[in-house]
Amino acid sequence: MRRWHVTVLLFVCAGIVIGTLMARDPGYVLISYDGSAVQTSIWVFLLLLGMIMLLVYYFMQSSVILFRASGNYKRWRDQANKDKAAAKLVKGLMLIEEGEYENAVKVLLKDAGSEGEARALGLIAAAKAANAMGQYQKREDLIRKAEQLLGESSRAIKLVRARMAMDAGDYQSCMHWLKDMPRHREVLLMLQKAMRNTGSWDALSELMRDISKVIKDDAWLLDLQKRIFLGKLSGVGVKTDDLRKEYKKLLKKTGPDAEITISWSRWLAKHDEELQSEAVLREAIDAEWHEELLIAYGQLGRATAEKRLKQVENWRKLRPQDPCLLRSLGQIQLMLGDLQAAKDSFDKSVARI
Question: Comparing C-alpha atoms, which of 224, 265, 234, 271 is closest to residue 247?
Fold first, then answer.
């Protein structure tokens, strides 16, 4: 309240001073231009000048307000367009999940994402829908448009291409698109599947270091190592010593494993290592009695038949009624040409099953 009183008092004093000055000498201002002249008192001139300055000030303030309002409107309009595009994109993705691929493509290409990454995401989703419908040319066209927005080196583009190649069974192309990708879980799982299907066992063996850092499922990792070893046995140009080291290393992790042992023994026999093959099976049977190992032991070649016959006879002293052992004995006797003895062994085996 006191501030208001002081303000009023100042204005009253200023009015008295100005009024006194105006009464003492009104002065004059002459403005002349191009033959015309305007004359007025200095106080009227100052009043007009103040009014003009006040109008200019309010004009500038109004301009600033209007400018800000137009900027806010533009931001609001842009945000509204983005929200609309996001809603359409979500609708398109939902249609894909529902299997409505044709409608999904229409929605995604019409409204989903007007520019930049949002638009690229809509194009990628539309490409997936086209791929699901078997429209491969349209798929490629859409991916190329997305590449123009994101660049050919975009990780998203590479991963999409790799997934589509995987779905089409084109594992070589899948590995091509993934070769420079960061080794996260999905990339590693796709790579290991592609490598298994292309028989790239050495590359998959090297990849195991990265896989074991990301995937902590011990049972799954052990099974993958097993598949790698078995895959290498089906390849060519593999050194026996390298495989022997891998076999021993793998058995330390898995423990006795009939599938691994039988595959390894057959590989040895196939590569003129039947004596070593016999030893592998014999040691495995001594470690763990297993019917598949016994059958594989009886199926080895002629070179170790007599040795195996003696070994089987020794095992019969411990397990005289074992049907698998009798079957293995019959296989060896048949290989040696003792038909009657082989028939007796097979009959005893069948009778004890």
Answer: 265
Condensed to tens digits (0 to 9), the pLDDT of residues 7-27 reads 767 766 766 766 666 566 666
- Say if 319 falls within a structural domain: yes
In this structure, is residue 196 part of a structural domain? Answer: no
Q: What percent helix, strand, coil does the chain show, rounded to 5?
A: 80, 5, 20
> Rounded to the nearest 5°, which phi and psi values hold at 271?
-105, 35
DSSP 255: -
304 by Cβ neighbours in 10 Å (0-12 / 13-18 / 19+) ranks as buried
pTM summary value: 0.67
pLDDT digits 0-9 by tens, 223-266? 999 999 999 998 777 888 889 999 999 999 988 899 999 999 99
Chain centroid to CA 231: 26
Cα separation, 247 vs 241, in Å, equals 10
In-domain check, residue 135: no
Residue 353 lies in a domain: yes
Nearest to 274 by CA among 303, 296, 298: 303
CATH of the domain at 275: 1.25.40.10
